[in-house]
Amino acid sequence: MKKPELLAPAGNMEKLKIAVHYGADAVYMGGRAFGLRNLADNFSISEMGTALDYCHAHGVKAYLTVNSYPHNAALPQLEKYLREVSELPFDAYIVADPGVIDLAREISPQRELHLSTQANTINWRSASFWHKQGIQRVNLARETTLEAITETVNKTAVDVEVFVHGALCISYSGRCLLSSAMSGRDANQGECSHPCRWNYHLVEEKRPGEYFPVHEDENGTFIFNSRDLCLLEHLPQIISSGAASLKIEGRMKGINYVASVLRVYRQALDEYMADPAGYNFRPEWMEELSKLSHRGYTTGFLFGEPRNVGQEYHSAYIRSHEFVGMVENINTDGTVIIEVRNRIRVDDEIEFIGPGMKSNIVRVDQLQLLETATKTVSVDSVNPNQRIIMTLPFTTAPFDLIRRQKN
After folding, report:
1. What does pTM read for this prediction?
2. Quick one: which of 309, 302, 313, 268 has its CA closest to 288?
């Protein structure tokens, strides 16, 4: 049984470094155009070169998303863009549109091509067709069942990639028109405004201006929304299906999300591959994922149409912890420099998390604010964008994150 790749999102350079630190085998990133997350920070051409050097120095692959569906007017810009990135050593491009595929093959015939979930591949014949077009990997649509994943692997020579965690779209594999209709931002051009996340009221035709609430729970209504995908408990079945890559959604999510999800899936994947027969799912893994901002979890379509789940959405964001800082550096004397990302106060109980499910909790008995490289001042609280220095009773490392339980 081959160990699948763990593929993580990298919305910017900081998120990329976090993904590498927490155990990604590969990352996917976007440029400033032609991806489906144009509202993420993304990478300039020069930043891509730096990112690729960093990934490859750490033995991590890097894929470039070019998975939008461009109109005719955008084709000259697309060609210019593909020529600009052609000299960069990306391990693959993630593509969806046949025209983009054709142009990418023309400009970079040596580049490996992976088919995006946006292409809506849900059966093995489609996967086989794309393989004949020179596609080396197919990211199956999220609507694909475990049975169909296994059949596709067994009946084709193409590598199969499967989403295992992250947001789900209410439309078929992301083909949503709500954003275009309601905000003028085209989801298939990478500009989705996520109207499915908005709160809605009912208006009766003859009572304009009167808004009647539609309550699903105490947080309001999210009638177009879905729970987040989480297939952690079913990793053994997915690995046994022969999937080559397990993908985590979230290029627009924060580093706390990327780190927390990755460290859980990394641990579970490694433990299963080390001893499949003796593998046991750990409840604390789900507890860790429940600490993140999420909308409740579902297995989606893995075991068929999620009819019951579809009527039980708890779509308001749930979050038990908040991200407050990141370890920047360790001084020669063992003291730790921390970048503050959220307010920290004396007497706060904060938790340091690292790869391998490492976790250490400490109560803040004093705060030493770094005013300059050599000068500190004692304060009662610190705010975002400040830096502090701490002495800890445990070891930590750069890129370890710090969080606090919400009150």
Report:
1. 0.88
2. 268
